[in-house]
Structures are given as C-alpha cells and as structure tokens.
Amino acid sequence: MRLAVDIMGGDNAPQSAVEGCQIALDTYPDIELIMIGNQDNIPETMQKSPRVTVVHTTTAIESEDSPVKAVRRKKDASMVLSVQYVKDGKADAAVSAGNTGALMTAGLLIVGRTKGIERPALSPMLPTLNGDGFLLLDVGANMEAKPSHLVQYAVMGDVYMKKVRGVESPRIGLLNVGSEEGKGSELVKAAYEELNQMPLNFIGNVEARDLLEGAADVVVCDGFSGNLVLKSIEGTAMSLFSLLKEELTSSLKNKLAAGVLKPAFKTVKNKMDYSEYGGAGLFGLNAPIIKAHGSSDAKAFASAVKQAKVMHDESVIETIRQSVESIKETGDQ
Coiled coil: which residue ranges (predicted)? Predict the structure, then answer.
C-alpha cells in the first residue's frame, strides 16, 4: 500500500508526523510512504529507505486559512499535494493532521464524492468505558442535514465498523434528546422512520449522556450536534484529568495516595485515550482520507496511518459504494 502523508499539518508538526511515520514503517512491512513537506525535517535514514519517497515543499495550509481559498491558491501545499497524489493514482490513501475544513475541501474538490453519497461525513472513533469505542457521524462536515444524509451516515458507519473494527452487527443509534420514539426535531423524527426501514441493526434513539457507556457502536447526527458532542467529550476529559492532577498533587498525603493509585489512573487514561483510535475518516469520498487529530503525538499519528491502511486493505470505500447502490436499487423497485 502507498500512503501519502502531509508532514506539515497539525499542532506538533513535523515531529509528530515524522515519528508516527517511522512507527508505521517499523510496524507494517508492506506499507510505502510518500512523505510530503519540507525535506529538511525528515531524517536522512528515512529518506534513504526504499519504502519512503520524499516530495519536497515548504508551503503549508495554516489553521487560520480559509479552506476553499487555501486549497485553490496553495496548489503546492503539503496537504493539497497529499490528496492530489491519491487522485493521480500515485497513492492509495492520504493522512493529514492539518486544517480540517481544508482537508474536507481538498477531498471534495480533488478526490470527489463516492457515487450515491450526497454529503460526506467527518467521522471519529470516540472512547467508551468498556474500551470498544463508538463511531460518530457527522462531527462538522455538514452543519445542516437531511434525513437521507443521516441514513447514508448509518450505512457508511455500518460498513466501517464491520470491516475495520470487526463488529459483526454494529448497533446503529440516532442521537436525540430522548430515547423514546417520536421525540426530537423534524429532522430526527424523519430520519428515525427511514432508519427503521433499513436492513441495519438500528436500535433507535440514544442520548448524549449514554454515549460513553457504549450505548451504540455507530451514532449518527447532523454536523452541528455532532461537533458539540465531540467538543464536550474532549473538554470534559481534559478538565477532569486536569482537576485530578491538581488535587492529587495538592498535598503530601495526596501525592502518596496518587503513587499507590498510579496504575489504576493509567488504566483509566488508556481507556479514554483518543490516540488509540486514530483520526477521523472523511467518509463518502472516493478514497480513504484520514484527518489525524490536530494535537496528535507520534502514537496518535501512527494510529491514523493504521486506520488508512486498514480502510484500504479491507476495501471500505468500495463496500460503501456497493452498499449505497444496493439500497438505491431496493428503493427503486
């Protein structure tokens, strides 16, 4: 597999991307990397590897850049070139930790949508208390959605969980303000009716408070609601760990107790660690494009590379295409 990697995107670039790529090279002997960015930031030992191709550029898309303008004007930016290499058939997938909006724009304008998909979705795996995690679609690609979009999110999520996460019959949940049928906005009510007719393991409405308990394997919602859920979970986790650290180091007695409980705290942290799950897939595009977390360290970036590899190896994009076409044919009959 050939993977195009933007090494200049993200808060910790280029170090996290370069180190993550080295982890991937050491872990997956069948992967070839096209590392795109300033070659001065790539160790000579990596550049000499027969499994590494370096494409030099010093242009990057910044976090404050306007996505559409940046993609159209910065043709030689590391992110744009990464996606272009996929479009040109020089790479099978791409990974970037850079500007989310720009990566989605580049994916749409350059790679294009999967046939039959009306709107792509930005879809991260989020942690659950049992360690299995759940897939949330959408978290910001589309702030407004139609019922048909949520149905397509469910189909794409179902394929991903089966192919990548190995879940035999993923439980599909619809994010709502209550679990009872008939609750929510007109969008959610209409989506509920359509999902109920689908050949999926649809379990009905799920509330945000139950997500970390593992209420569903796939949760679908509009991008506005999904982004609020994502930021709330991330913010709560960071605040909780910050509060615990402050309290456990506030006195000698607490420090001694923290020393005894350190293994337990580490277990909790690992369960809630986003880096284990990779990045957010841009589902609904014609090739695997993975948005690694902007704050990714080497481990998290390597997980995003793994996610792209598995999506390619398991033909997730083609399976999504076939699933959508099958549903459309069924509906036309």
Answer: none
φ, ψ for residue 108, nearest 5 deg: -70, -45
Please report the domains of the chain, with CATH numbers, ordered by start residue: 1-117+284-316 (3.40.718.10), 123-273 (3.40.718.10)
What is the residue whose two structure tokens read 């945000």?
Answer: 208
Structure tokens at 89: 């058939």
Q: Taking the model in full, what pTM does it have?
A: 0.87
Q: How far apart are CA 195 and CA 187, in angstroms?
A: 12
What is the rounded distance in angstroms from the CA atom of residue 113 to the CA atom of residue 308?
A: 17
Closest CA to 49 of 75, 31, 68: 31
pLDDT for 270 equals 67
Cα torsion angle, 229, 303, 166, 153, sign: positive
Closest CA to 62 of 15, 4, 139, 10: 10
Three-state SS for 150-215 is HHHHHHHHHHHHHHCCCCCCCCEEEECCCCCCCCCCHHHHHHHHHHHCCCCCEEEEECHHHHHHCC
Q: With the C-alpha atoms ordered 159, 206, 129, 295, is the resulting torsion angle positive or negative?
A: positive
For 236-325, where are the E strands, in sequence order? 280-283, 289-291
**pLDDT tens digits, residue range 247-303?**
888 888 888 888 888 887 777 766 666 666 678 999 999 999 999 988 889 999 999
**Using an 8 Å Cβ cutoff, are 291 and 135 in contact?**
no
Distance, in Å, from the CA atom of 76 to the CA atom of 86, rounded to the nearest integer, reads 15
pLDDT of residue 274: 61
- Contact, 279 vs 293, CB < 8 A? yes
In whole angstroms, how far apart are CA 106 and each of 59, 112, 157, 224? 15, 9, 22, 21
Q: Which amino acid is at 86?
A: V
